[in-house]
Design a protein that fits this description.
Length: about 160
Amino acid sequence: MHVKIEGKLLPGQAFVSTPGRLPCKAIIHAVGPRWRGGHRNEENQLYAAVMQSMQEATQRGFQTIAIPAISAGLFSFPLQRAIDIILTALRDFLTDQSGTCLKEVHVVDNDSQVINSFETMLKSMTLPDQPGPDEEHHVRRLSSQRDAENVSGEF
């Protein structure tokens, strides 16, 4: 219906709809880019899609959001690069947005290989200006979820 009224969404944009029968407050439809070799701004468009999703969730007062491996499936974005961009966008948003009401960010997927890739990359991530994971300081990390079927709440 949104496409009929407003037209197609471009890569990097997001639209919020009602959840239908899903047990959440809303669905944020993020449009990721189709991979075309990396020469058509695909990385920035993927980053923008994640940031737009986070902004939409914050504007609506949501406390929880679930983010899948946007563009890494049907749109053929290289998985490791997509995960790096998605997690970087999440880190950047949560670091720069002290006013956000988001308390939980779940990275989700039905494929255990994708979840394992998210977890591996999360273990090596730190917040800007903080020590690396091998140093003796406590480092805050984004949360992940192993089983996408257990995601519930506001997203």
